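question for whoever is on the cluster today: can someone run the full assembly for these? two chains, 677 residues total. i dont have access anymore since they changed the login thing
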Amino acid sequence: MSIVVDGETKLVVSGLTGREGSFHGLRNRAYGTHLAAGVTPGKGGQDVEGVPIFDSIREAVEEEGANTSMIFVPARFAAPAIDEAIESGVHTVIAITEGIPVLDMLRTYWKAREAGVRLIGPNCPGVLSPGVANVGIVPAQFFDPGKIGVVSKSGTLTYQIGNELKQAGEGNSSIVGIGGDPIVGSDFIDILTLYEADPETELIVMVGEIGGDAEERAAEFIAAEISKPVVAYIAGFTAPPGKQMGHAGAIVSGSSGTAEAKKEALEAKGVRVGESPTETAKIAVETLRA
Amino acid sequence: MDLLEYQGKQLFSAHGVAVPSGEVASTVEEAVAAAERIGFPCAIKAQVLIGGRGKAGGIKIAADVEQAREHAAAILGMDIRGPRGEGPFRVERVWVEAGSEIAAEYYASVILDRGEKKLLAMVSARGGMDIEAVAEEDPAALVKQHIDPTRPFTAAEARPIVDAAGLDEDVRDDAAAVLAKLAETALAEDATLIEVNPLIVTSDRRIVALDAKVTIDGNALYRHGELAEIDAESVEDPQEAMAREKGLTYVKLDGNVGILANGAGLCMSTLDVVAQAGGAPANFLDAGGGSKAEAIVDALTVIVSDEKVTAILFNIFGGITRCDEIAKGIVEASGRLDLQVPLVVRLDGTNSEQGLEILAGAGLANLHQEKTMLGGARRVVELAGTP
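^ ran it for u. tokens below:
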């Protein structure tokens, strides 16, 4: 078992004919993901290394049975592309694109919720289920199959922690990058719920950062709903207020969204928070083996 | 992107929200001339992106020309710090504004509620003070209502919260109309925060926005030409301006340890770990995914242009980014920029072996390799010395 992407995933990539889309889409295929189709309006009938291209996601769903969509289109066209995916009949949409206007995402978020479609991202590295499937840009070589579920707002920070887990001899059920934007399709709570239900996952590592209150909400949720141990890491203790730290959502506004507040909220609910990525991995391994 | 008060007011005005008349000035002479045109009394208001200007002496009322000159001279060029020690922000411009006769001070805002994934309209009859403190002391005094972002928010929908907030009855229709216009402004201009504190009732019973705090979504600037121009001109820090020109994500900080990492999360984490090791980070710089040699040269150019930097830490975990590319960039940058400060390099992940070989082969002076992030942090703090 794994979450979000697995052996049943049939992937359709919007933007597969583009440079980034083809590089990562084909990398995902090489990893073992079933890459069913690509979509680029006006290029239907062509193929990318044997992968059929359609004019619309719906055609890819009807013709190839695609059930998961990955969005790799440029930011200003991405929200309509996600909307198209939501209406196409796939059950999961993973949006990698960075830089989508937040009000567009606000509308798209509710569209996905109302349609019952799982949206991951945008501005995220995607989802890897080690040994099974990879949808996105996560470098799979740093992760082995195993019992630790990871959910994170950040890409490279996750690779760092995943690699330390691997060196300690542990692996992952799945790695879910939820993205660093102010509005993302799935929050920590959504992914924690999936890990709680996944029999393969025995421990969850949650990687948060400054901005918003998703970590605080997750802390409440963990106390009420999650029986599995959760270990957390929060980045951005040294971030000055009012400055956007790379990710659009990583900003301390006035006194809200600080790393300190998130750490305190999690610790108050019994979640251990590592001081550094290294310590976080160490706590996770110790907890798992205790 | 945050707008200055006068820029926010211009935006309000364009959407039909009443604001006092005024002019922007960047010299004392301009300010005095503006005051004479506007008439007295008038307010001379520092234009800086931080709250608490009034307490810091950045807002003064002038009763005549002499006072206008005196206040403009005092405010222009002053350094203002925020209530949480932010800044200092140098006052480059003042907004000279017609004086208002205030009968009541309210609060109104429309913000992005990240947690609930909706816009949120808020109103209070207790404006003119720190609204967070009001909300804490008397939560019922701040009335809230979510807004559906897929359609306009009407004055009729705003009316119940205006009623609930207990604004003066004779101005409730106007206040509801203003709230609807603020929501329209947010939706039309891609604003994630619009705050009017105070929203005043004038002595002749009109509703006027006396202040304006507006944040525009940087990702949406491509569809707002005028706001994008404001954004382009808004960067005053020389390093931040240079970084922006080179397309790098850079934030200037106060310390002496220059930092470059790949990925926003890893970069934030690197700052934290350096601080834990007793150091003071000089900057945040995310070299991004898939960094090529040229980007490294650019990044180092920006970092060393900050004279406070006494040592630099490269913390790279290569995923899509290849460590051999990073190493080539470091070697190339060392040849092109006369680097005077020690460089601590931690390369891990994709092609790290090749990267380390390239660095070893180049025999660069002043280059220190560390295997781990923590090791790199300790080493760079040691080499940087006290700021």
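summary bc i know u wont read the tokens: The CA atoms of residues 221 and 229 of chain B lie 9 Å apart. Chain B touches chain A through 58 residues (CB under 8 Å).
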